[in-house]
Amino acid sequence: MRGTRGTRGAKGTIRTRGTSRGRGGSGARGTGSGRRPGTAVVLALALIGGLGAAGPAGADEPPYPFRDPRLPTAARVNDLLSRLTLDEKVSLLHQWQPAIPRLGIRAFRTGTEALHGVAWLGEATVFPQALGLASTWDPALVERVGSAVGDEVRGFQRERPAGWGLNVWAPVVNPLRDPRWGRNEEGYSEDPYLTGSMATAYGTGLTGGDPDHLRTAPTLKHFLGNNNEVDRTTTSSDLRPRVLKEYEEPAFTPAVEAGAATGVMSSYNLVNGRPATVNPALDELRGRSPRGLLNVTDAYAPNNLAGTGSQKYYETLAEGNAAALKAGVDSFTTDDTNAGPTTASVETALEKGLLEESDVDAAAGHILGVRVRLGEFDPGGGRYGSVDASVVNSPAHRALAREAAADAAVLLKNTGALPLKASAKDVAVVGPLADTLYTDWYSGTLPYAVTPAEGIAARLGGPVAGSEGVDRITLRNAESGAYVRAGADAGGGPLAEGPAAGTAAEFDVFDWGSGIVTLRSAANGKYVGYDWSGFVNDQAQPNGWFVQQQFALEEQADGTLLLRYAGYETREPWWSNPVYLGPTGPDGRLGLVPEADAARYTRDVVRSGAEEAVAAVEGRDAAVVVVGSMPAINGRENDDREDMGLAPSQEALVRAVRRANPNTVVVVENSYPTTIGALQKEVPAVLWTTHAGQETGNALADVLFGDVNPAGRLTQTWYRSESDLPSILEYDNIKYDRTYQYFRGEPLHPFGHGLSYTSFRYGKVKRVDGGYEVDVTNTGTRAGDEVVQLYTHQRVSRDKQPLRQLEAFRRVSLEPGRTRTVRLPLAEEDLAHWDVTRSRWVVEGGTYDIAVGASAGDIRSRATLAVRGETIPPRDLSRVTRAENFDDYEGVRLVDESRARGTAVGASGDGAWLSFADTGLGARAGTFRARVSGGGGKVEVRLGSPTGRLVGTATAPATGSVYTYAEVGAPLASAAKGRQDVYLVLEGGIRLSTFSISRAAARPGVG
Predict the structure, then answer these.
(1) pLDDT tens digit string along 226-276?
(2) In which residue ranges is the amino acid composition biased (Gly residues) (predicted)?
(3) What is the pLDDT of residues 271-307, one digit of tens each?
(4) Active site residues
(5) Angle, nearest 10°, between helix axes 39-51 and 73-83?
(6) Which residue, 85, 150, 489, 940, has most beta carbons within 10 Å?
(7) 145 burial class (0-12, 13-18, 19+ CB within 10 angstroms)?
């Protein structure tokens, strides 16, 4: 079935079911289960004893119990742990685990990239970007893609060169709360439920669906609160309890609970002031998995912890790595292949008593548990050991790539231009992405590329007119008259100034927005980039970590241009070189010079891209203009987007083409929502796709000509302007009205939006056992898929509630005139939200709106649900209350209570405040007491508002350290009584951990 509901659980809460990190002897831990060893492990050890530790009971028995697939995983892990020396166990804690020849154990590596296909290992099937896969709203399809990717990982692994492995780092499940995030294409959705559903589907495909016999071992990225690239190792994501429990954790927990993930990767950022690498939630999450987790760090993140790193959270690497192990990290991804610093730091931590051997056993046990389940120690490599390289880019996988790319396309607007008519035989395809396919940082290597122009030409059975629509220019030194020239042969050559010489002095200028362009040499079709010594035209596409093919043409008052180098490394704090281009020697070779010495160039247009595109589309039956992004430039890892619009030259091209041919279809090919409201009004049809892999062109042709009826749906809100969004560093969706759940404006396109070539009618939504059902009828003339979406809204609550919240969805296929009853599961427990007054989930009594439709903004059928739930009682502040459990706030940050665990609240300046609504103070409050730390200050207790009646002030001394706390108190005035909204106003540089307000003793004779 298509679009089935993903695993949910009780709103994604993390419940600690026990931990494998105890203080017992070696071999008693590390069972791989994530729970304390009990009866199952005792039985397993008994089984081992029955087989005998020294050798097999019979000639056909495996030589060691850990190689016996008949035994439980826990028994095999414990047997293997018991045979390893401490040094050998420590050696397993680095990403590159060495072989242990005396036991016949081969080397193992964590971390094969498999986000939307196998990456970095050679040619492999490239599927649509993760955002595109989620846009299908089809978990069954996404699971098939995961299965195909898992098989290809196995196909590569059969060859087993260094650097290949079965532990895959995918999928990325950070919810896409801000479309400016540089890694937006890596995630699935701004909705945690949809994200969890897709992650579970893809992970199930990767694992093969049997947690005891793994096809591959997927690792979810990046835990936790990771949704900005700016200063990504030093910024702290403030996750107050409701945001943490209702938004961030639910994206991770479904796949973990379903056994569709075998671990998580800790993120670079801090969470509430504590580096995510030492977040104790890593170990808490382990308790949600049926088979335990193998948790890894992000690359070089351990080094950030120590005194020389960016975070400087600990004095030494030994302290940092010990803390990471205790927090739930098992494998350290750092120092590339050099495990020396990691193993040395762990050994030092053991010597100093920062770790015990049982801590190492626990981590090594989690690692070995996954290796056992992968079949590494089974005869023939286990269930998937025979999968070979023939599966890589197989015909079945190529067909699946085309299917996925077509199903992911989202029709944003259509006033009758699509599908293209059967009589449309003369079609022009223009635009900067018309005849190329770009790959992103985590894409695989394309085995072939079907571009939009090629796909449409194949569909029509002949060539199509076309143009990239970019200007071809020359750059002439205004002072010397010399031209910038590139190497003419296939390998390119250094750029230098010299006489004009045909195409050697000509460059195609691609505008990617934010003032950034790339220059492609007309002489050899290669892009110009910096190679740390000069500039060379030698790259097929912009690429690399620093993306050194970026430039800016800066116009001067006299009409000349300065040519500025804008590679990513120029934004790094260590970059001290100049960034302007100019001749640096007698041969005219171009290099980097200070702005004062920069050459001034005049630009001459050899060929106008807009004019060429217009000539190509004039008089044609239809014009398809393909615009969008270059994934290495318009936001990617380590670089957030600077704006959300199309590049100005691309917008101008669309308008020129539209004027020349009224039957213009715009294809936007990029990795995120785009602010195209003004442009969209001017064209009859807009189709959006992510960078969709090797079959992009065929898939687009399938959709444009109606062979596939589009049914992709947006998984993010498309805003009209950046002004609709708060700072990218604000993580509180509730307070700042982020995502479709809380956004009160009018979006360009709502969450869940997508059009079809047919139409659908919805009947009355009815409550049935286990949820709701609705009849959906295809009222058009074409077969098509509809994505039926169910949203809820709680009308009255003690707490601010989402305006709408996705609770279920189903993608269904309908022939013309056919009706289908669509069942959408919903349990009352799904209506729960996190009650900060009692730190638990609660379903409040009251009326809930049930809304079923085609998007969050297109509701077709409604019902109400009366729930006999709880009433949240008034807050009882006489009990010790954690300051983080506020209802509202201003001017505060969430900070680490200690380095090991806990969250406190820190004042960002005088006048910061916290509110605790609907507090029952009783007949009269007595004394305010608080636990504070830091530089000293005071806490005012006020009623009704931050400037309301002052009823008490507690003075806090300087404690000498933010981790040293003092107890302070103050008597409260008689007005502190009854049901009140209590405000705590913080002055000075203090941190507030917990507080309480005691009730005054009753006077004699007074009830």
Answers:
(1) 999 999 999 999 999 999 999 999 999 999 999 999 999 999 999 999 999
(2) 21-35
(3) 999 999 999 999 999 999 999 999 999 999 999 999 9
(4) 298
(5) 60
(6) 150
(7) buried
